[in-house]
Amino acid sequence: MSSLDNRLLEAFEILSTEAKDLYLGKKIYELTELPTSLEFTRDYVGKNLPVVIRGCTLQWPSVLKWNSKYFQSNFPKKEVVVAVTPNGYADGIGLKDKTEYFAMPEEKTMTMEEFLSKLNDSNGLVHYIQKQNSNLTDDFPELVGDIDFSTLQFAEESFNKKPDAVNFWMGDEKAITSMHKDPYENIYCVVSGYKDFLLIPPVDYAFVPRKQYPTGIFKSNPDGSMTIEPILDDSNKKPMITDWVSIDPLKPDLQTYPNFKKASIFEVRVNAGDILYLPSLWYHHVRQSHKCIAVNFWYDMDYDSKYCYYKMIEKLCNF
Q1: C-beta separation of 107 from 63 below 8 A
Q2: pLDDT tens across 150-196, in order?
Q3: Which domains does the chain have, with CATH numbers?
Q4: What is the DSSP letter of 176?
């Protein structure tokens, strides 16, 4: 490592320490009642700080009635688009012939009844409703009335915009969201079960290793197994490349990536009836309980001074 590299690393360590001491704290902040839009903006959005609001949606019709039995009874023949993987990582790292790929899930259309039966098969492939195209409003319009949107008025007033997407999620404990970040302000509402989040703030970007991977997609084989099919770049017929986090925070390889231990990792469980505000550009890794159901609201981030500051960090880390 050159002297410049050492100086940069020291600077990022100071940034991380100062952030932790001055405003990040040691755990995710929690509220027991909805904030006003002013409080939310001042205390969390303006500081790019996550917060969990406990029990604030317990009276939503969705929280009171949505579960696997409800969907089996009311929508057994409804067609749903399901992400299918052999390892539970839809949009994550997979192996093909000892080569690591960024692998996207195969998408299959099936009835809700068929999907629920797959969730009961503990030895089979992993199935997850996770289509991130505002599938609650587009694919499940009959469910929209079970969400009390007035609860989220504080967020809409703070962001000063409507959500770009409202997404419906349903799966089991084998479905895991690999660590990544999004350019969205995220209001995440667990409806049934719970989600376990690991969060890393943007100031620790330097300690989260990334690599460029050939890109592929899982495809089913006739024998029921799955393999990764490379996605080729039309210009050169070589696999497309995706930049992705190269460490599993559940089993971090600190020998290969020793700086990862310097990252501030926050852990929080979000239960049914809770809302998590996940700020833009925070790394997050998500696990869940069996047959967990959630709804999230994505609001496009503001490309303001925080974003410019983040892009500077990104550039310095990639010299």
Answers
A1: no
A2: 999 999 999 999 999 999 999 989 999 999 999 999 999 999 999 99
A3: 3-317 (2.60.120.10)
A4: B
